[in-house]
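Issue 218. Parser rejects a valid record. Input:
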Amino acid sequence: MRTSRPARIGQYTALLAYLVFLAFPFLWLLSTAFKPPRELGSLHPTWIPKDPTLDNFRQAFDEQPLLQAALNSLIAALGAAVIAVLIATPMAYVVARRRTRLAKAVTGWVVVSQAFPFVLLIIPLFLVLKNLGLINSVPGLVLVYVVWALPFALWMLAEYVRAVPPELEEAAAVDGAGRMRTLVSVTAPLLAPGIVATGLFAFITAWNEFFFALVLLKTPEKQTLPVVLTHFIGAEGVADLGPLAAAAFLATLPSLVVFAVIQRRITGGMLTGAVKS
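Output the parser choked on:
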């Protein structure tokens, strides 16, 4: 059925409005990051800075340890993504291929666990980390991020496994390959786009996470980037707007780059497993 011209115009208008709605915060953040203090305090703000400056970026790096915080965030996010994918891949294979009540129960639990609020999990996680001696440490934060990312990674990878034709695994079994050999040599290469997409989602989630890092990390040199950004806000709630915008803009760039990569990987993952009849 062909869409009428007024309907297409309405669709494109709605899409454009949605894109503007999504892009407005980032564009305003970018504009604020380059404005001098005089323009930041103006009663008539403008989109484009009249006298753009890099002083906000210099001040942000002078006031807070942004490089160390970015390194902590990178270690926590990368470690959580890698470990979550390594654990979730064989689990997802079992859940997708075993049509048992246990597999269905695991899938149901994964869906339900995503509705748990952070506050409900922080106390038991805090007690576990305390007993392990991992409070106020980046490895402890990695462990928390793995626990938080694992259900979603399992659910996402299970869908990719179901897209792989079982006939390929049956052919490998006929040739004498065991379950583990089949997973490593046959299924895993076909899951590569899905594994990458899942890992990138876990990375972005951990990179942007704030609540767990705020509660578990107290030493300034161990804090992650989202927590350090709060230091640009004074005790009375007054924000140092220029440096805060500059630091927030730099913290946003990795997420945007990773998300741009995800777009292509997800498309490739959706095509994984397609065969000709």
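Fixed in the parser; the record now loads. DSSP finds 13 helices and no strands in the chain.
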